[in-house]
Amino acid sequence: MVAAPSKPQTLETLCINSIRFLSIDAVEKAKSGHPGLPMGAAPMAFVLFDQFLKFNPKNPKWVDRDRFVLSAGHGCMLQYSLLHLTGYDSVTIEDIKQFRQWGSSTPGHPENFETDGVEVTTGPLGQGVGNAVGLAIAEAHLAARFNKPGHNIVDHYTYVILGDGCNMEGIASEAASLGGHLKLGKLIMMYDSNSISIDGSTDLAFTEDVGKRYEAYGWHVVKVADGNEDLDAIAKALAEAKSVTDKPSLIVVTTTIGYGSPKKAGTAGVHGAALGGDEVAATRANLGWEYEPFDVPADALSRFRQAIDKGAKAEAEWNERFAAYEKAYPAEAAEFKRIMAGELPEGWEKALEPVAQKETSTRLLSEACLNALSPVLPEFLGGSADLAHSNMTYVKGLADFQYGSYEGRNFRFGVREHGMGAIMNGMALHGGTIPYGATFLVFADYMRGAMRLSALAEIGALYILTHDSVMLGEDGPTHQPVETIASLRVIPNSLTIRPADANETVAAYQVAIANRKRPSFLAFTRQNVKNLAGTSIEGAKKGGYIVVDAPNPELIIIATGSELALAVKAAEILAAEGKAVRVVSMPSQELYNEQSDEYKESVLPVSVKKRVSVEAGSTFGWHKYVGSEGAVIGMDTFGASAPGPVVYEKFGFTVDNVVATSRKVLG
Amino acid sequence: MVAAPSKPQTLETLCINSIRFLSIDAVEKAKSGHPGLPMGAAPMAFVLFDQFLKFNPKNPKWVDRDRFVLSAGHGCMLQYSLLHLTGYDSVTIEDIKQFRQWGSSTPGHPENFETDGVEVTTGPLGQGVGNAVGLAIAEAHLAARFNKPGHNIVDHYTYVILGDGCNMEGIASEAASLGGHLKLGKLIMMYDSNSISIDGSTDLAFTEDVGKRYEAYGWHVVKVADGNEDLDAIAKALAEAKSVTDKPSLIVVTTTIGYGSPKKAGTAGVHGAALGGDEVAATRANLGWEYEPFDVPADALSRFRQAIDKGAKAEAEWNERFAAYEKAYPAEAAEFKRIMAGELPEGWEKALEPVAQKETSTRLLSEACLNALSPVLPEFLGGSADLAHSNMTYVKGLADFQYGSYEGRNFRFGVREHGMGAIMNGMALHGGTIPYGATFLVFADYMRGAMRLSALAEIGALYILTHDSVMLGEDGPTHQPVETIASLRVIPNSLTIRPADANETVAAYQVAIANRKRPSFLAFTRQNVKNLAGTSIEGAKKGGYIVVDAPNPELIIIATGSELALAVKAAEILAAEGKAVRVVSMPSQELYNEQSDEYKESVLPVSVKKRVSVEAGSTFGWHKYVGSEGAVIGMDTFGASAPGPVVYEKFGFTVDNVVATSRKVLG
């Protein structure tokens, strides 16, 4: 048991306990949630929000605000309490009473798309660290791009509170290693080191020296021995962290989870469950808290609400500074406003059209698209997880994004796929950037946790996924995607696009860039493809469209990507035999599903029941389009190591097989 | 350029160059592969295989062999060269000439299921580190379980060669942190630190102090300054690593990638592409290599082939020791032989039957299965990624697996899902254990890279995935699986099983344990379920079966897991209206797909075209079973935070909706 505080209740203590009891009471009312972290981390969060964090509660989207990430998202009542107490309109006391209820702005984990003031969606552990690295990268990049001597219009910090769970996750390791490499001096993380995770003491599984590990990554590490009581030490550590400008900082804050609860403090019992009525009462007594549930003492509220004036003043000052910038640099200011508003420049999509004339692999067509977009979309930037020259993502003529050249737009993510995804999410949610990240399609598996969050958090990131079938060849089944395309199609609010040729690759980029509220997963070939007569940019943007047709078709062959060529050739052979065959290219099932019923009937008429699908991947999901009387050509086993064309043929991706299967379906 | 070696060619150098040139020549012939690592890491690999590694080339499966893992799997020619040179039958010189060709035993990355002598399947970076931690865990566990005073029958090391790429991956961080925590003294990793990854210098993205990071994890770290030439230093480092018994060891070996190539050594150009004819010739000249492609000097071969006698002798000695053990401890010896042969004890599945009488959530039924299996399958062991008391995976009465209690069977993986998966893969491939690992279903996304390898590498690991739908409730969409089940069904050579009640949970475990060559992904509810009248263990093992029937059914409702209860109730209502309705439970599409056509026709007759599927998840993939005239009930959006029953109802998982949809389908 933690003894009741012996010292007098200061205003600061009152404020901190206000956070604690809003959290306790909300979890208690919901009978669900995680009170332990808010109780233990309230002091560090209070010091941060009270003395350091630059924000305007009445304008949560002010572009030069500091970004705050609660990577330990299960402790979201900490954040909701602070948003409410400091005066955000997005979290009223009624919202707090509706914690974890249907339709409330206070869901079980922080969701940027639900609650103003929440920067990123966390809960899946470690993601917030990656997001924060991305936020800090975006700040550094925009500062390098837009600031001018005497005009610091981009100048804010990224603060994080993370816990033991985040520090156990590999994604956080990846992001922290890259953050150290990039010397992101304005990234400051407070590690709520309470030695408890859900299963109990961290002694069970996590006994490493975390501070030393971050030092190895190149971080500045500060320690706060007593994060429960020593507010001065917390403030001093934050000030020290800010003073180190060429390294990100980790502040290791030793705390007690569930601080104040006589029976449960310092135990896993307070991690993820309501305290229970008796223990809530005991905690009230222990901390000398005399207020009713959800009551906030007026003194505390008034102290917190100083944030409103302070924030308004800070933003007003910034507005003045921005006005001066605008006067001195009108073009830059206009550009800055455009990208921070997430608006695309007029006619950007036309830059892609010349790419439609090229003929090569779709990964090289993708490279041509990146190069074409680069001058017209300066906010478009990214790179690869150490496969730049396989993914073809390096844009010539642009600098690398590195310490000393933060204006660079070619990113070197290292072999850190999961970190890359989370970093992209942070970059995009910062505003002012449209990020892309690349790896082999099969390694989408490594970053799926982040891809899902791109979709859930409504982030228009581009995932460039090359080597999209067994045609990659010799690297073998560990590197050959089979089920990957299908596995991505199932993610809600996302687009999976697998173009067949140059027209369709252009369409893929036009769609991906235009979709600012959902991620695009772009699958490109390693091998060369031919441009096909019937394809079109406009058709491909509908997700599925007719490429070859015949009057009153008796058979429809549906294909994607490199297999469209097989379908077209098979149709020629069948047509020569007098069969009426239609070929439908379906680069994106999702886009197709969104078309009108009339359009869909025009492409896949209900009356034409003889259908064949061809895709060099899992057949899973294709029965929706071929129906009960159709056939699916694909592979539901793993691939094999051999030259691509050999593997392709061995697994049945041949014109002959498409013809033979079609004949069988025709009966 | 690296200067030609000035010192005389020793036999050791001849051996090392034999590895290098077999690798160079094989990659050159295939015009595909990664020569850089074999050329740089040949010295350390030679010292390891020559002086330290305990193995018998003529019996690659000898149970007490040391395990060798090439985590940097792209450098597989290093391993194939060693397997050939030391006399394994699995890799002949012809096989090396067939590197990366269809049907060869020398695929583009090491595959345990293709090539004897390859312990685990690597290539996807970082996995090998997790596998190695698993191999070392299995050794430690079996040693603790079986060794007796004077009888060390389990006593071998796990050696790893890994590269920069592995060390950038989060999965390796997770596994290394746990390996340090567990003080796995018999795990020794050699880090081929060549400062080059595919995109170029590690200065681009990876400038951390790796040795210091491993020290932070609790590892013993040794450095070898000149890994190109200083064989003594390598041997000394290995000896030192072996002498430290309470910590795993990392030997940081500084090398030159592509050592010996005048133009390409030390560059990314030699990482993943053939040297090219001119550079091969220049490398031959530079290293004084006078032999034709694929020729191995007789002196070198004879030195390598000493491994055959040495291995035979080592195994013979062990056989003697085992015979003595068998005499002293016949029961233990028989048990050891059984589990190392991967045989299940007679009648083990009967232990599960009493669980069929219980009625609760399927996660608690899963717990009952774990407890029931625990005494009859002593090789069955595992744990959770810090969610033991949510996943219900802690088996009472068993000790924790920790340093000092390696005989324990309750594992504490920490919040390290991806590491957990890779560790399970290593444990299983070691032999003697059947591992399980648990987390929330939605976090399968975090470990999908390892799950795919379980499937590809034919590993019968059990993934226990609880909280299997939006019914998990308040935690919200970050924690609610929607698309996860579908995303797992697409993985080849795996089983996804979502049982509806006690009978089906028993069936799920019977199937999962019996399937020793493919992983099972078991999805369990958080909430209570009712046992349903029509379910059966035998039926569920067929993947899909009739639970409610009517003569000449006009409608079939297909459901899985918790939604089977909705289907059964809907059928009752429809039957009361005079409709002939069949209900099919389909806990596993994969198992159902494997049934005979006759059986499938008996369950889902082609003639009954009116069908409805119900599953609280993505509808993706269900059209295969409901056909063109059917309807799918599911959800293709993310969930929301609220109490489970509220979310469930809001998304349409109600008897009313099933009835209404059925009526619509019936027309």
Automatic annotation (TrEMBL), chains A, B:
Record's keyword terms, sorted: Calcium, Magnesium, Metal-binding, Thiamine pyrophosphate, Transferase
Domain Transketolase-like pyrimidine-binding: 360-531
Pfam families: Transket_pyr, Transketolase_C_1, Transketolase_N
Catalytic-site annotation from UniProt: 417
Residues annotated as site: Important for catalytic activity: 34, 271
Reactions mediated catalytically: D-sedoheptulose 7-phosphate + D-glyceraldehyde 3-phosphate = aldehydo-D-ribose 5-phosphate + D-xylulose 5-phosphate
Keyword Metal-binding: yes
Subunit structure: Homodimer.
Protein name: Transketolase
Gene responsible for this protein: tkt
